[in-house]
Amino acid sequence: MTLTATDICITRGRRHLVDTASLTVTPGRVTALLGPNGAGKSTLMKVLSGDIRPDSGTVAFHGRSLSEWHRESLARRRAVLMQETHIPFDFSAMDIVLLGRLPHGESPTAPKARDIAAQALHRTGTLHLASASISRLSGGERQRVHLARVLAQIWADTDQGAPRFDAGNDAENGTASETRCLLLDEPTSALDPAYQIALRAILHRLAANGTGVLVILHDLNLAAAMADEIVLMRGGRIFSRGTPVQVLTPDALQAVWGLDAVILRGPEGYPVIAPRMDGPPAP
């Protein structure tokens, strides 16, 4: 029921990009992967996505090595949104989202595929852009369209045929292998604050329906509000993991980022980080 990386090591020259790192993406939970630039976050996510093979260590999905999965079968269950997605064609937003339905063997003209794509666009607030060229959209609009694409990719059906995200009912019915997983690398980098909050709602809804979510973020306060669990990396290694309250402590912020900060409490109970502005300049 999980996507698990165990003792992952990746070395380039004399540099350990990832050093014996282990991480689990658990169904029903949003996990945020945090750390400074160069900590190994994106590299570890590329290992989890199967884009690169580790020098040592293993990656398994539902207890099976990634190499044992048929590509389309895996793509129906696990979607990945990396920092940059380049489309070399002048597709419309609807065309982009319909790409997410290809692993399901659905024609782009099929009513079911177009219905799911429309719902995914609606979920990300981009349905009004369905016919717009992707090349003419703003960075934030493109980011939301690509989010709709990966949502459409892991969209599942109920027995009644109504589209939905995979929910806990599958596990109850003994088909836990259908549980979905979503990996997102910096999905908020071009988003306005309102859409960052909307993304939080989308990911929480996915998790509530049994999907495992892993998201890389640089905004610590957004991560604290979004994540059930935080995994903190430094120098290619896992520094700490736990709830936002457990992980985002003044000592950890100082050790990982050299950040002098006060930890406050937000209206919903999650920590709010208030950096001191009179500290030494960054090197």
Automatic annotation (TrEMBL):
InterPro entries listed in its UniProt record: AAA+_ATPase, ABC_transporter-like_ATP-bd, P-loop_NTPase
Listed CDD domains: ABC_Iron-Siderophores_B12_Hemin (cd03214)
Molecular function terms from GO: ATP binding; ATP hydrolysis activity
Stretches assigned to the ABC transporter domain: 3-260
Domain of life according to the entry: Bacteria
Gene3D superfamilies for this protein: P-loop containing nucleotide triphosphate hydrolases (3.40.50.300)
Keywords associated with the record: ATP-binding, Nucleotide-binding, Translocase, Transport
Pfam families: ABC_tran
Job description of the protein: Part of the ABC transporter complex HmuTUV involved in hemin import. Responsible for energy coupling to the transport system.
Protein name: Iron complex transport system ATP-binding protein
Native organism: Eilatimonas milleporae
